Amino acid sequence: MRKTKRNNRVSRLYVLALVAAFATSMGASYFLLKGKFVFDTSFITEIASRQAKTAAKTRGPEAPRLYESAGRNDAESARTASLAATEDIIKKYLKPYGVRLLDLYVDRDGVVYIDLGDELKKNFRGDASEELGLIAGLYRSVGPAIPGFTALKILMEGHEADTLGGHIDISKPIGKEIAEDI
Asked: What is the largest CA-CA distance in the chain?
């Protein structure tokens, strides 16, 4: 009888020691490794800072342009003009969905970043084919307007989004294969 009680105590202490060691190692791992697995892009940080500056302002139909053309050379002015045309195209395309276009940006690799308001994600009730049609339509409408266009990246409120309606992954830039699917 004594050996059984003693074995139970030893096994309880052993299990308690294992749980304590596990909790300690998990806590130490969290604090040591949390900075190594952080995904951060300067573009998203830049959008967040822009939004913080304009948070007090409401964007109406007469909102200022998303980009400035003063003090630029001819190539930059042409690119700015194409972005202005693209902005108008996107606004017309998204008008039926009641979505705000917050920002528009083209990086050096030709990836066009479209920052949309979260109304689309909140109010989207379509199926996979409607979501595919929306994304492919955005891709096809932006492509001809931007010289050197290679891909499209859709952001929501300055943050990367996984999907619009739960069907299609938009976490990575969207290439020409999406337009070919329809």
From this structure: 93
**Domain definitions of the chain by residue range:** 1-38, 42-56+67-180
- 125-151 residue pLDDT tens: 778 888 888 888 888 888 888 888 888
Closest by Cα among 66, 64, 71 to 84: 66
Q: In what order do the strands lie in the sheet with 111-116?
A: 101-106, 111-116, 151-156, 159-160
The dihedral of CA 115, 118, 119, 125: what is its sign? positive
Model pTM score: 0.56
In contact, 100 and 117? CB cutoff 8 Å: yes
The 3-state DSSP class for residue 113 equals strand
Distance CA 33, CA 30 (A): 5
DSSP of 59-83, one letter per residue?
--TTPPPSS--TT--HHHHHHHHHH
Q: Which tokens in the block code for residue 104?
A: 């528009």
**Residue range 33-42, pLDDT digits in tens:** 776 665 555 6
Q: Which residue has the higher pLDDT, 153 or 177?
A: 153
